[in-house]
Amino acid sequence: MNPERILDMYCTAHQIPASIFSGKTLLYNGNHTVQDFSLPMYLVASLPARLPRVWYAVTPEQLQFGGILLPDSDMLMLTGPVIPRPCSRMQASEIICRLGRRKSDIPVLMHGLDSFRQTDLIQLKAMLTLLAVHFYGNASEHDAADAFPAPEQIAFSWASIFPSPAIELHDQPDEDTYGIVEESLLSCIQYGKSDRLEQLLNELIYISPQRVTDFDPDTKRQYITGANLLCSRKAVAGGLPIAMANRLADHYLDQIAMTGSSGLDHLFYRMMMDYTCQVRKINLSSFCTPVAAKVHHYIYAHIYEKLSAKELADALHLTEPYLCRSFKKETGLTVVTHISRCKIKEAEYLLSTRQYTASEISDLLCFSSQSYFTSVFRRYTGMTPLAYQASKNIFQDSSEIKLHP
Question: How far is CA 195 from the centre of its chain?
Fold first, then answer.
């Protein structure tokens, strides 16, 4: 079986990218339609001249990749790059800088990296070992002891491909840094973004612990108490019934008072996730009938792809007329209308984070043009994306909600 065929099967089975090189020349890319900005080529260009037969490496930005020198040839099969958790904006900005790309390419790279399966080093090494078994499994008897080489880690540093950084590595922290972090966390709660919230909390508490552990226990306790109130407000703004928000707020007030200083970080994590998951459940509960639930889940799982009633019908193994008729009967909406509503809801979330421009959001959500995106957004919200973003104050837009009578 030729290497290209193996590569296609490998990418499909493991949902991670792979490529074949001859020296530094790309022969075949199994990455298909995902925009990767030629990352594999830049990674290979930065590799040392001599490599083990099976190896892996980690870049300073936590990109993980590995490779196998194919026997009896000068070809290299590269697998990756992959990441162990959702790509952060800072991580993407550093990679984009290495590639000499524009800052506007950051969200595209984030989407590209996140479209592949999140893979840690243990999984990556296991995949490389399986490939090594395949390619070196027919080794001669005298070489049997050396037939299945274990992956070796190699040191990696980027080659100086560009004479100077094309953009700043990332925005320098300023006095608004913590406010931006808080806005992003609270936006996740209002829109039920549990996956994104988990990523942000991991970065805040576990990846960059100095941001939160420098506070003394009393200050941290006061911060979490204030966060509890804000979480309640944002959860209600996201659709959580006020009575349920009240119960959650009371529960966590008791927990804050009873938890020792060593457990406050974990309590904060659990509290934020709890509010967000409750909002997510409420939002999903309105689509509990069979076809409506499948359609809704599929749309949100593929929200950053171009969607149509036909594509949904094919993916769900239904005929398009049956899908459209059943969805309209169960929800009173057409499939096309619901796709538009979901995409605009996602656009509202992205605008609320203040990390993307209207043009970037239009591209991310696969609208045909920014003007069409603006038109659809105005139809559903009554204002343009820029006006909507300007009107949002994450700390005050739900302040009129009274949690306790």
Answer: 8
